[in-house]
Amino acid sequence: MTDQEKCELLPDFLKPIAKMLLAKEFPALPESPLYGTWYKYRADKACCGNGEPYAACLKIGRENKLIVVFCGGGVSINAYTAAHPNNPLYPDPINFYADDAFLQTEFIPGHGLGKNDACNPFRDWSVLVIPYATGDFHTGTNDFRFKTEKGEERVLHHRGYDNYRVLIDKVKEFVPAPEKLLVTGFSAGGFATALLTDDLIKVFPACNDVTCFPDAALLRYSGWRETAEKCWGAPDEIVSRLVSDDIVLDQLTALHKNHGDRVKIIYCCSHRDALLAQYQHFLDRGDMRGADSADGDRFHDMLKDFCEKLIAEIPDVGTFIYDAPHEENQPNDLTKHGINMTDMVFTFQQDGIACIDWIYGAVCGDCKKIGLKLLGL
């Protein structure tokens, strides 16, 4: 099904927005791309979780430096969550993950770290934006077959890792040996950043200046290893690093242990993240209702514990813990989810430091700890 055909199936209130985005669709990636121009790359050997075609976006910069951005969009951990995707074509009041990259390629690039503007110190870097539509934190290689609550047989194509590697092979045609590499992502893509930076280091072995920057990634779940192995089919080297209920802490501490000062590690999250608090409520209690203040308290305490352990394991880690309200949940005192691929990255300051200045400073070797007082640290 083409994007235009999907657009016609949307609810009436979404059609104008979708048509506007599709009208701005990026041109197809040519053999000789122009510097600073966003292109869409339709990867023949890649697919979305629902089996639909998959595409990503790429911009070639003038500097021999590369940003890899993993996009977010929930996660599936078992048959129940797999049966409830978040797809605007087939609305489900209970939903856990995006299963189609439809509109992601038009909506995300060109903002935040991908913005072509004088305010962005990364504007001349090459950028690969990897949309998320597989429910596996970009690490899957498995076609997960399951039954719904009604007994229907379905398959979720957990092909995130396969998709990512196809895209990286294409990027290497234009940026074969970057002198600097920034790996980042938001939400599910933040988890992917922690999970896949080690893999990218192997892809670019000559690059000795790497920054790993997960944004808005923290969930506690005792079944991560089983899910990664049996549902997603994640590579063995990723599964072997999952030793606790904290998937991000496991991966970042292993990354530091394996690579030391070669990799600068920085971490960003709001201290009462509304969406992470909601998903943690589901992991704790089994229902996917909206988060409330108690869930915000739970997440705040988790983040404090995470940062304490992270700093103990990686003393030079950089942090940007911030307090920006989540507009839809202001009465519950919950906070924003993700900042790196929004234009807020340029304007929002915590403790007098703009987020973009914190990121660029870290990439240049100055990993500051910002906002820890919000956690009482």
Walk me through the structure.
With 377 residues, the chain is an alpha/beta fold. It has a single domain (24-375), classed as Rossmann fold (3-Layer(aba) Sandwich), CATH 3.40.50. The chain is 33% helix and 20% strand. The protein is built from 13 helices and 15 strands. It has helices at residues 3-9, 15-23, 79-82, 104-107, 160-171, 188-203, 224-232, 236-239, 247-259, 274-285, 293-313, 344-347, 355-363; strands spanning 38-47, 53-59, 65-70, 85-86, 97-98, 126-130, 142-147, 153-158, 180-186, 210-215, 263-270, 318-322, 349-350, 353-354, 369-370. A hairpin with a 2-residue loop joins strand 13 (349-350) and strand 14. Helix 1 runs antiparallel to helix 2, helix 6 packs parallel to helix 9 (247-259) and helix 9 packs parallel to helix 11. The longest helix is centred in the C-terminal third of the chain and has 21 residues, at 293-313. It is globular, with a radius of gyration of 19 Å.
Topology:
Blueprint: H1 3-9, H2 15-23, E1 38-47, E2 53-59, E3 65-70, H3 79-82, E4 85-86, E5 97-98, H4 104-107, E6 126-130, E7 142-147, E8 153-158, H5 160-171, E9 180-186, H6 188-203, E10 210-215, H7 224-232, H8 236-239, H9 247-259, E11 263-270, H10 274-285, H11 293-313, E12 318-322, H12 344-347, E13 349-350, E14 353-354, H13 355-363, E15 369-370
Parallel strand pairs: 3-6, 3-9, 4-5, 9-10, 10-11, 11-12, 12-15
Antiparallel strand pairs: 1-2, 2-6, 7-8, 13-14
Helix pairs in contact: 1-2, 6-9, 9-11, 10-11
